[in-house]
Every structure is written in C-alpha cells, then in structure tokens.
Design goal:
This protein is mostly helical and 300 residues long. 78% of the residues lie in helices and 0% in strands.
Length: 300
C-alpha cells in the first residue's frame, strides 16, 4: 500500500515537471533550436550523465546488452516509441494542426494503453467496470480542460494523424515497459531508451542536416534551459516514470497523463497570467474522480 501511494506521488510529480517543460522548450525554440535538435541534445546529456552515474556507483551490476536479442529488440522499440518517433510526431503535429487538437489527441493515450494491455494480457490483466468508467471520466475531464469551453475542433488530417501517432507511441511504450520491468533494472531500461532514441533520430539529420554551434549551446539562455530539460525532465523523470510503471502498472501509471493539461494550464496561469475558467475546474474534478475510480480493483 505504501509503495502504491509513493507511486502515485511520484507519478504526479513527474507529470507536473513534464507539464512545465513547455516554458523551457519555448525558450530554446526562441533561441533558434529546432524540436529535433532540442530532443537530441536532451537525450545526449541525459544518456551521458546516466551512463557516468552507473559506471561510478553501479559498476558491479553494469551491463551493456539485454540477456536476449528479443529483449534488445524491445529496448529498441522503447527508444522509438518513448523517444525519437514520439517526440518527432508530436512536435511535427504542432506544425499542421492546432495545439488544442494535438493536446487532446496525445493526452488520450491512456485509453489506448488500457486497450493494448487488455488485448496483450487477457488472462492476467482484467479491468473492472469501475476502472473502465474511471478512465473514461478522466478522459472526458481532460477533453473539457483542453477545450476550455470552446467546443470547436479544426480538423487537419495530416497534423491530427501525426498527433495520433504520438498517442499510439506512448501507449505502446507503456505496454512494452510492462513486459521488461520485472527482468531489468530501471537504470538499465532508461539508459537503453536514451541510447536507442538517439540512434533512431540520426536518419532525420540526413533529411534535415544542421546542428547548433557550441557558442549557441553554451550561451546562458540556452544552457540552463537545456540542463533542466536534460537532467530533470529527461534523466530523472524517465527513471522515475519507469519505476512508477513497475509499481502501479502500465494502465494506472499512464492515466496520470490526463493531468498534463491541468499542469500546463496552471503554469500558464502562474507565468503568463492566463485565466482559470469554470471549465478548467469542472474538467479537473472529472479527472480527479476518474483517477480515483480507475485505481480501484473492486467491481460495481
């Protein structure tokens, strides 16, 4: 029970940090970095720091490869679905569709994660009506928060499909994570995610070459924002999130994604002085009630 409470607490903290990253990412974009360059720099710094930490403090249990090629393939897929393709599709979606559409589609990934887990683990993972209703309520609440009373969506097939691709990526990431958390340490899995995320982003630079200069990277306005995104939002948060999935399970952990729009709007209220609306409060209430129900194992 104590681990469950800790899992929920750290899930909330992680989502809160991820919800704040738009500020730091925006600063890097304003300084001329592209979304792909930001992702690459984030993962390079996070990977190097995590590798150095493991080599100095966990060298006796350090390993480079998984115990089988099948598990190594899963690590590759984790790097793609939780790293390169996820970030590229989400960022590219913003170029072709609205921020509202992107947020609404990407943040619905817990529903798809629940469906994938139910299909893949039919015997061991059975969800009660209470859990399904809770997840649906939380999804409705997320939609209310994102739409904020403006129930008009501007359809953009390409952008919406890219956002949906990011949504499916994170759902698959959660499913794959469930399959390896019992056999490998959180440090090993997270390091693999960073490594394969970087490896699979390289073909992008064949199509769109170019990288920021050292002068730009080490300028104060870039360096401090980049360090936060790399050390806190990437290395620490991925470590914690993968541990949370181990403690709570893929579906319950992924349901915390519904809180992302709440955190983003709260930061916008705090830093950009945007107003908190009744729709935001109502949607937040639905999310909280849905989260409580989705964590229950009892039947109606």
């Amino acid at each position: 029970m104590e681990k469950s409470y800790l899992g929920h607490f750290f899930a909330f903290v992680t989502v809160a940090i991820w919800g704040s990253t738009f500020v730091f990412t925006k600063m890097l974009l304003l300084n001329g970095l592209s979304p792909a360059q930001i992702f690459t720099l984030r993962f390079i710094v996070a990977y190097v720091l995590l590798l150095a930490f493991e080599l100095t403090t966990r060298w006796q249990s350090f390993r480079l490869f998984s115990t089988s090629w099948r598990d190594e393939l899963v690590m590759l897929l984790l790097g793609i679905t939780g790293g390169s393709i996820y970030f590229l599709s989400e960022n590219a979606a913003m170029l072709y569709t609205t921020a509202t559409n992107t947020s609404l589609i990407v943040c619905s990934c817990p529903l798809f994660a629940m469906l994938l887990v139910a299909l893949a683990y039919r015997q061991s993972e059975r969800f009660t009506r209470v859990q399904v209703i809770g997840s649906l309520l939380a999804c409705m609440g997320m939609a209310v928060v994102v739409l904020n009373g403006r129930f008009v969506l501007h359809l953009s097939p390409l952008g919406d499909m890219l956002a949906f691709g990011a949504c499916i990526c994170w759902a698959v990431y959660s499913l794959l994570m469930k399959s390896v958390t019992e056999r490998y340490s959180t440090f090993f899995i997270t390091r693999k995610v960073f490594f394969y995320g970087l490896l699979t982003i390289l073909p992008y630079y064949l199509l769109y070459p170019g990288f920021p200069s050292m002068e730009v990277i080490f300028s104060p306005e870039v360096l401090w924002n980049l360090l936060f995104l790399s050390v806190i939002a990437s290395m620490v948060c991925f470590l914690v999130w993968n541990w949370v999935i181990r403690q709570l399970g893929a579906v319950v952990a992924t349901n915390w994604v519904y809180f992302n729009p709440i955190i983003t709007i709260l930061f916008a209220w705090w830093l950009l002085h945007e107003q908190i609306t009744v729709w935001f409060l109502f949607g937040s209430l639905l999310i909280i009630v849905g989260m409580i129900l989705s964590d229950r194992k009892t039947k109606l």
